[in-house]
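Quick review question:
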């Protein structure tokens, strides 16, 4: 592997060349961040704000980003997180409780009226 300078659009990102397979790649190749325009710092900041339960709209307003772009970024981050976590394995004694919640009766307002 040899270094081949820096990315022209994002100078902080290095470019490399594999001498074995003759392919070029950069720091983000084969990651969920590859092929996207926002800098890595924006992705990390978005991930941090997601951890604080900040909405996509608030993230966009705070950093001057389009809400659709923020939605794509958060969706991709969530997908990447779920791919890494995998299925949980239960062991030992496991308890499960059931809860049934009625969110409303659409079109049947009389069914949810309070009775005297």
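Suggested answer, residue by residue:
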């Amino acid at each position: 592997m040899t270094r081949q300078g820096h990315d022209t659009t994002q100078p902080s990102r290095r470019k490399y060349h594999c001498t074995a397979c003759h392919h070029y790649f950069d720091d983000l190749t084969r990651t969920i961040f590859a092929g996207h325009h926002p800098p890595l710092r924006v992705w990390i900041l978005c991930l941090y704000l997601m951890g604080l339960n900040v909405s996509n709209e608030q993230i966009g307003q705070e950093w001057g980003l389009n809400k659709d772009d923020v939605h794509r970024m958060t969706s991709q981050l969530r997908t990447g997180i779920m791919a890494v976590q995998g299925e949980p394995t239960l062991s030992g004694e496991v308890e499960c409780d059931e809860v049934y919640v009625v969110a409303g009766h659409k079109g049947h307002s009389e069914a949810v009226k309070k009775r005297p």
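Why it works: The first strand starts at residue 2 and ends at 6. The CA atoms of residues 69 and 87 lie 29 Å apart.
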